[in-house]
Amino acid sequence: MDTIGFIGLGIMGQAMAWNARKGGFTIRVCNRSLEKSRPFAAEGIPVTQNPADLLVDSHVLIIMVTGPEALQEVIHPLVQKDLSGCVIINASTVAVDTTLEVARAVTEAGGMFLDAPVSGSKIPAQTGQLVFLAGGDHEVLERCRPVMETMSKIILHCGAVGDGTRMKLAINLMLASMVHGLSETLVFAEKIGLKGEAVMQVIQSGVLAAPLLKMKGESILARDFSPHFPLDLVFKDLNLILDEAGRHGTVLPATSAVRESFNSAMAHGWGRDDIGAVVRALELMSGLKGM
């Protein structure tokens, strides 16, 4: 397992690939756009636009792409090959049905599949502090643990294939709601004459203190929306969450409202900004020009 193939070199995927290399693994990379592959090529790392090319010498492939459609696109050329002895790890956030469908296709092609989305955004990815939420066979997970440990601070075995995806959707529901709640709080405070800095000091002084709220609060007040977790990916996840909730008869009224705020931010063209940019939509609806 010394050579690892990485498919998808966005904010997360590129950081994960570099950490695997720093951890002593030989890597190969694949991305639909060669632009993102250039830093790897400059270091002499083989690059390709065809995922199947990685199968020549990589028996573990880690996929980090933007969503269900992208995952299905990169899986298709892989499952046309004999995947005997190969492990496909999907670290992307997708629908549960997509996870199960891809897992079946990989298994039918002779391979093994780990459902392993990650908790964490840009900085945890860069510093190797992600949390893997793994679903799949325990022995397969243990085989892949050495490379996964180069990218993470903890690997949680959530259950069977599908359970990693289910866990990721559950925690992203809370993450989106927390950032939205913080944004509403700061907009409300501004409207009633309070300073955002004072509000953040109070939040961090009591039971509400949380690293996520501190980080996003500081970014919002600084008007720094450089992407750590892009807003359009949060919107995608909220849609996946509500679709899954609908299949199970789960009522999520607050999540539905949060999704519409993110929808508004998307409509204004802020999809590639950080999740905290949802505050801009709330400011506009409240008659604020921006704190």
Question: Could you give a quick summary of the protein structure above?
Answer:
With 291 residues, this protein is α/β, with parallel strands linked by helices. It has helices at residues 11-22, 38-42, 68-79, 96-108, 122-126, 138-149, 163-191, 196-203, 211-221, 231-247, 253-267, 278-285, and strands at residues 3-7, 26-30, 47-48, 60-63, 87-90, 112-115, 118-119, 130-135, 152-159.
Care to describe what's here?
This protein is an alpha/beta fold and 291 residues long. The chain folds into two domains: 3-161, NAD(P)-binding Rossmann-like Domain (Rossmann fold, 3-Layer(aba) Sandwich), CATH 3.40.50; 166-285, N-(1-d-carboxylethyl)-l-norvaline Dehydrogenase, domain 2 (Orthogonal Bundle), CATH 1.10.1040. It is 51% helix and 14% strand. The protein has twelve helices and nine strands. It has helices at residues 11-22, 38-42, 68-79, 96-108, 122-126, 138-149, 163-191, 196-203, 211-221, 231-247, 253-267, 278-285; strands spanning 3-7, 26-30, 47-48, 60-63, 87-90, 112-115, 118-119, 130-135, 152-159. It has a six-stranded parallel β-sheet with strand order 3-2-1-4-5-6, with helices on both faces. The protein has a three-stranded mixed β-sheet with strand order 7-8-9. Helix 3 (68-79) links the parallel strand 4 (60-63) and strand 5 (87-90). Helix 7 packs across helix 9 (211-221), helix 7 (163-191) runs parallel beside helix 12 (278-285) and helix 11 (253-267) packs across helix 12. The longest helix has 29 residues, at 163-191. The termini are far apart.
